[in-house]
Amino acid sequence: MNSIELAKDLMQIYAIKLSTTKPFKWASGLNSPIYCDNRQTLSYPWLRNKIRDAFIEKINKMYSNVDIIAGVATGGIALAALIADKMELPMIYIRSESKKHGLGNQIEGAYKKGEKVVVIEDLISTGGSSLKAVRALREVDVDVLGMLAIFSYELPVATSNFKKAQCSFDTLSNYSSLLKSLVDTKYMDDNELKSLSEWRECPEKWSAKFD
């Protein structure tokens, strides 16, 4: 799958929303010119199947020895199910924390120590919540081969966090591809594109202008 074309697809279904003058407030408190909700892709069969097949192509190329497909709650669960079904592989998913009742599981589904797992996410921002899932899997002694996601903001902090965790990751599309798609389609003017570039270079500095 071409990463620029996927960025255009995400814009087409409004999974990606952009605003350089009225930013979106993230849960972290950071002001951002972009909001990406890849759950929207599930409502479009033509796109969700395209994404599923692109994930499978990457898995076969990068992690052909995989035993289990794992989804990160909540955005990665449906994606992992689609992939596992097509590949005829077992699937599990990881909650953000252990349940407070019942069996108290954080990881749902059947797995064994030493099995090789590919983790599926819908989006990578800072990598914090994604790597919590990786740690949970490692704590039960499964072998995390790597993580794959639909989109990454390409924030330096995410690259640093994954490096510290010694976890490889890759995405189907990313912020660089989005910027290229915006140039191709002339969706935004030069000042808006400059603002988007400035945000990626230093999100905190960009964010502070709106506080």
Compact description:
With 211 residues, the protein is of the alpha/beta class. It is built from eight helices and ten strands.
Can you put this structure into words, describing what you see?
The chain is an alpha/beta fold. It has one domain: Rossmann fold (3-Layer(aba) Sandwich), CATH 3.40.50.2020. It has eight helices and ten strands. The strands form three sheets. It has a six-stranded mixed beta sheet with strand order 7-6-5-8-9-10, with helices on both faces. Strands 1-4 form a two-stranded antiparallel sheet. Helix 3 (75-87) links the parallel strand 5 (68-72) and strand 6. Helix 1 packs across helix 6 (175-185). The longest helix has 18 residues, at 45-62. The model has no long low-confidence stretch (mean pLDDT 94).
Question: How helical, in percent, are the residues?
Answer: 40-55%
Would you give the CATH topology?
A: Rossmann fold
Quote the average pLDDT.
94
CATH architecture type: 3-Layer(aba) Sandwich
First and last CA, distance: 38 Å
The top level CATH class name:
Alpha Beta
- SSE order in H/E notation? HEEEEHEHEEEHEHEHHH
Number of domains: 1
Q: Beta-sheet strand percentage?
A: 15-25%
Strand ordering within the main sheet: 7-6-5-8-9-10
Shape: globular
Radius of gyration over C-alpha positions, nearest whole angstrom: 18 Å
Beta-strand segment tally: 10
